[in-house]
Amino acid sequence: MESVKETKNPLWTRDFTIITLGSVVSMLGNNMAGFAMSLMVLDFTGSTMLYAIYLMTYTVPQLVVPIISGALLDRFSRKKMIYTLDYLMGGIYFLVGILLMSGWFSFPIFALFSLTIGTVSSIYMVAYDSLYPLLITEGNFSKAYSIASVLETMAVLMVPVATFFYNLVGMGPLMILNAITFTIAATLETQIRTEEKYIETQKNSIEGEDKGHIRRMLSDIKEGFIYLSGEKGLLAIAVYFLFSTMAGGATNVICLPYFKSTFENGEYLFMLIFGMSFIGRGIGGFFHYKKKIPTKSKYSVAIFVYMMIGVFEGLYMYVPVKVAMALAFCVGIGGVTSYTIRISATQSYVPDEKKGRFNGAFQVLSTTGSLIAEVLAGAMTLYMDQRVVMLFFQMLAVVAALVIIGGNRKHVKQIYNRDK
């Protein structure tokens, strides 16, 4: 490994510091509330299938909304969008928290709530993913995204805290706490000053066009897919991640219910195993902050990691807990390595004025994979052993890595094996 070379451009600028602090605050609250909501749904329904439906209602909006929002966000302020949505999420969580504290719970209405926050979150993810690279100074992409990964890891460490407080005080107070964190994050984000130059570029590109707002939006959506289909390397990466998120969707549906129903205090075993994964991500993220993968090796490292993750995750429920924890630790290190290579490469490769559309199209493909797996895995567990279903989806991801990433080696290498 090479040491990360210092650039003349500092990473920790005012705006990058603000977006990082805002992310820390909102992720801590959101991860705590999110896991507690999963426990609450399982406690009230006792059904893996209904749990899958709950997850699906959050995922469904991400099939369509990112495409529409991606097109719009290439013409309007992404900064204003993220802090507006954070304020909105704060208000929604506060309202639902008050209702839950009054003793109210209805699965159909809670599923509607999940659908609402899934819609808002899918817009937010495209806006955030498209703004974040604009706040990174030249030469610091890998370093910045390694920080983002470490922060995600720190946020997931709130899961045991969520379990403790969920059992102690219930869901309502956690929802209100999440509302407060969203409001703090939004207030910080209003102070970002980076000029969004792509807006003016897009305005100039449409001068003289005789199109209404709807026709222009549809045209932008079409251009996003045309751009993706014309970039063979980007297309291969996006299609592979459709299969990768299928494996992730199956994991989301199967693992927590499996451990909770198979073992006494199974949710704690679940946390031990997946906690090791996030510890691995934290250590890996810190490593990537200090060291740099040799440019010529990034593609080879990425495809190896893709296959390793599929094999190791597929074995979680077949091996003793301690072995599963060791495998999860390796998956965590591999996951942050994969993430850092992919996100820094693609976000530096795609032009600023096309980032929204690319991220929207990528998000839709990824969400499609997750949704397919959530529905299929939930249904398959009614007739098959949960462990077999989990292994099937993980092996499908391994085959996809070999066929799609390996089969498009030349084009993917041109994106991954670049200096940013």
Could you characterize what this model shows?
Helices cover 80% and strands 1% of the residues. It has 420 residues and is an all-alpha fold. The chain is globular. The two termini are 16 Å apart. The model has no long low-confidence stretch (mean pLDDT 81).
Short note summarizing the structure:
The protein is mainly α.
Strand order of the largest sheet: 1-2
The mean pLDDT is 81
In terms of quaternary structure, the protein is single chain
Shape: globular
Which sequence of SSEs, written as H and E, runs from N to C? EHHHHHHHHHHHHEHHHHH
What is the CA-atom radius of gyration, in angstroms?
A: 21 Å
Q: What percentage of amino acids are in beta strands? A: under 5%
Topology, please?
Layout: E1 2-3, H1 14-45, H2 48-59, H3 65-73, H4 78-101, H5 107-131, H6 141-156, H7 158-169, H8 171-189, H9 198-206, H10 213-230, H11 232-262, H12 266-290, E2 291-292, H13 298-314, H14 321-349, H15 355-380, H16 386-407, H17 409-416
Antiparallel strand pairs: 1-2
Helix pairs in contact: 1-2, 1-6, 1-7, 1-8, 2-5, 2-11, 2-15, 3-5, 3-10, 3-15, 4-5, 4-8, 5-15, 6-12, 6-14, 7-8, 10-15, 11-12, 11-15, 11-16, 11-17, 12-14, 13-14, 13-16
